[in-house]
Amino acid sequence: MYGTGILKGLGVTLKHFVDTYIEDLRWLGRKRYGSPEGIAHRASKGSRGIFTVQYPEEKVPLPEEFRFIPFLVYDEGQEGEKILRCTSCGICAKVCPPQCIWIVRTTDPSTGRPIPDPAEYYIDADICMNCGLCAEYCPFDAIKMDHNYELASYKRMVFDKETLAKPAAYYESIRPINATAENAARAAKVAARAGKME
């Protein structure tokens, strides 16, 4: 018989429609809309029915590996100064597929030799494809991928060094598992160097 596929498809749609209201009745009296537990439940595999988020009031929790625009990590010095981890080596600019990263190296005025601190650092967010290769290839853990995806603008988005710089504590807050592993590896490397020097 012709049209059985259409009827089966409509049956699936009707089942999801009915399951949505049954699920709403199960959550009646509980804080569902807007609460993190409700959103997490509706986004999980065990949820039934149609899943809708009332954005921007509700937001789906982002996984730790979510990546958007890169940012530069800095450590805070003893007197509160920002010490960028970036040494302006240029690896991130070389591996960037759309070539949206520009770095201007700082040079010593007396010798003309490069100083491991970028004078200027730009990322064109309009061109960036959020691939994460810059963060993956950075040997100094100086560039990481951000979770902030709400960047709508009427202007061209070219971010400079000051806009891109965020503290290491911010990175640890958005990616706690990765940051813990990286800090442990960094501590092991420092301990190994100290052991060789003794």
Overview of the molecule:
The chain has seven helices and seven strands. The model has no long low-confidence stretch (mean pLDDT 88). Strand 3 and strand 4 form a beta hairpin. It has two domains: 61 residues, no CATH class; 128 residues, Alpha-Beta Plaits (2-Layer Sandwich). The protein is 37% helix and 18% strand. With 198 residues, the chain is α+β, with helices and mostly antiparallel strands. Helix 6 packs across helix 7.
Number of strands: 7
Question: How many separate structural domains?
Answer: 2
Described by the principal axes of the CA atoms, the overall outline is elongated
Helix content: 25-40%
Structural class: alpha+beta
Q: What's the story with the biggest beta sheet?
A: 4 strands, mixed
Distance between the termini: 84 Å
H/E topology pattern: HHEEHEEHEEHEHH
- How much of the residues is beta strand, in percent? 15-25%
Q: Roughly how many Å is the radius of gyration?
A: 24 Å
**Which whole number gives the mean pLDDT?**
88
- Which CATH class of the largest domain applies here? Alpha Beta
Count of separate DSSP helical elements: 7
CATH architecture of the largest domain: 2-Layer Sandwich
**CATH fold call of the largest domain:** Alpha-Beta Plaits
Low-confidence stretches: none
Topology:
Blueprint: H1 4-26, H2 36-43, E1 70-76, E2 82-84, H3 91-95, E3 101-107, E4 114-124, H4 133-137, E5 143-145, E6 158-159, H5 161-164, E7 165-167, H6 168-174, H7 176-197
Parallel strand pairs: 1-7
Antiparallel strand pairs: 1-2, 1-5, 3-4, 4-6
